[in-house]
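User: Here's a chain of 110 residues. Predict its fold as tokens.
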Amino acid sequence: MKMIAFLDIDPINNGHILIIPKDHLLDLDALSEQLITSVFLIAQKLLKRLRRVCPMEGYTIMQNGGLFNDIGHFHLHLFPRNKSDGFGWVCDESREFTELHKVRALLSNE
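Assistant: Prediction complete.
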């Protein structure tokens, strides 16, 4: 599989890398199992190298799909993390998940 990886132009933290297959695909569900495996094997190799050059307490791997894929091509983010980096999930804690039982049923039937 042909793949490219490079440092993000607008990094969340130092060492933020994008991993992109050269095949033009938009979302995770469009990737073959072989390509998914290749992307994550590259992520693993790059993480091992990052650990040698970037101080980190952990890391995050992230992929945005559909409307939230801001470049119109599948890409995986890999970036070093530290407790003090300020990165985190933000959501409305007051939301109710009224459809949760329907989603659970759909997922358990597959």
